[in-house]
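thought: fold this chain, then report.
action: predict
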Amino acid sequence: MLEDFLVKEKKIDKKNIVFLNFEDLQIREDFEKNPKEYFVGLGLRNYCLNNFGDIKNRTDRGELAENFVFGELGFLKEKNFNLNFWRTTSKAKVDFIVSCGETIVPVEVKFKNMDSDTVGKSFFSFLEKYNPDRGIIATKDFWGERKIKNTLIKFIPIGYI
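observation:
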């Protein structure tokens, strides 16, 4: 497991790695139970990968952007929000599910050039199944807004999350 490797090989304290669990939304059979792993700091992540290159030239820029958004959403846990992710056994996934009580907000990270308010198949599946009031797609540089049924989706560049 990544945690064991980092702690043993790189001498990283376990408190610097966060394991994000899936959100069950009362339908357990749809979900895998494998946690996602994020680093508390991107510098620590870069150190472990021995990669400090410019994000424009990195093959892991999507994962780097997702870890950045995780860090920005992390403060919500202090305000009684839950932060999870959604993934079905058929591999549909949404990067983050922010929830508080009955309110759920799916957050997807798409760090690529976008010129329209395109919603991916997995995100759309989540909207169809759970019908949240709002959702967020964190983008590289695209601003936008789109309504799908009752869900208002905001497209926000990750630097503004």
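thought: worth noting. DSSP finds four helices and eight strands in the chain.
final: tokens above.
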